[in-house]
Amino acid sequence: MSAPHPASAQLLSTRDAVDLASAWLCHRARVAGIRALLVKGPVAAHLGLRRERVSADADILVEPGRVAEFVDALAPFGWHERPQGTVPQLVEAHSVSLINDDWPIDLDVHAFWPGFLADSGQVFDTLWNSRIHSTLAGAEVTAPSAESMALILALHSLRRPLGRDSSRVDDLAALSAATRRVVPVATGETLLRRARELGATQTAAPFLRMLGVAVAADPAPSRELQLWRLKAETRGNVSAWLMEARRARGIERVRVVQRAVLPGSAELRRLHPDLPPGIRGLVLGWTGRWRSGLGELPRTVRALRSARVERP
């Protein structure tokens, strides 16, 4: 399966581009001898776990230690990393976003899935050993089983903080109902067993409780679980910047605060690539950061005090 010609790719709808790119990604992984699984997107819809929707990217989870190799294998076909600003992260960056000037979508290549806290090798082996085969764009693709995919979708939703709207609650309620239809026999117990294998009992607890599973709170949460909860309770990168400032000392702390509050123009445009050109765009970018940061600050401070995340 060769890569579609760029001229043809430009004529694709976003939906067709995601389907075609997803199938092509699985093919390239097989050619390279790399284990990889499609996550979210059209396969989740085919499984009946979510409604059909138009995605802006194709997501693939690659076996541990081989993401760089897989990204290199896609480079000859015009795919390269999306430029991004340098910001601190609460947890290690879990994916690489690739773009192609001739395609209307991104490719997200995942090294691991946030919320699965077991050993990354064990997690991938569990997902791989229970994988399913499906057909997309006329080609065979591999993906996690319905049980695993349900947890992947739940964790994706749970990473978004509960805000003024109820979108996260609505998404989880819809996913819970869909999971009961797709995994009808002892759904809660089945999902709990898989969550234990993947180290997601605590991170996916709200979803598991919706399925009727009693999940007790962890009295001594690990640092990884504390960081997950902090990420799930806050928006943006304010919590990561505050933790970075707390770790820094002296003049380095001043530099951290300056980068957070007033990044340089080039860095600002990497962080916010949709800003309009000229000084107006820069002003909009800076004032937007200040507005959102100040709005999130009280909640973030409360979450940090509650989490009591230990320093590494």
Task: Sum up the structure in keywords.
14 helices; 10% strand; two-stranded antiparallel ribbon; globular; 2 domains; Beta Polymerase, domain 2; alpha+beta; single chain; 312 residues; 5-stranded mixed β-sheet
Describe this structure in a few short sentences.
With 312 residues, this protein is of the alpha+beta class. The protein has helices spanning 6-9, 14-32, 41-46, 67-74, 120-129, 146-158, 167-182, 187-198, 205-210, 223-233, 238-247, 251-261, 265-271, 278-307, and strands spanning 36-39, 57-62, 80-81, 95-99, 106-110, 132-136, 139-143.
Account of the 3D structure:
- With 312 residues, this protein is α+β, with helices and mostly antiparallel strands.
- The protein has two domains: 6-210, Beta Polymerase, domain 2; 234-307, no CATH class.
- Helix content is 52%, strand content 10%.
- The chain is built from 14 helices and seven strands.
- The chain has helices at 6-9, 14-32, 41-46, 67-74, 120-129, 146-158, 167-182, 187-198, 205-210, 223-233, 238-247, 251-261, 265-271, 278-307, and strands spanning 36-39, 57-62, 80-81, 95-99, 106-110, 132-136, 139-143.
- The strands form two sheets. A five-stranded mixed beta sheet has the order 1-2-5-4-3, sandwiched between helices. A two-stranded antiparallel ribbon has the order 6-7.
- A hairpin with a 6-residue loop joins strand 4 and strand 5.
- The mean pLDDT is 83.
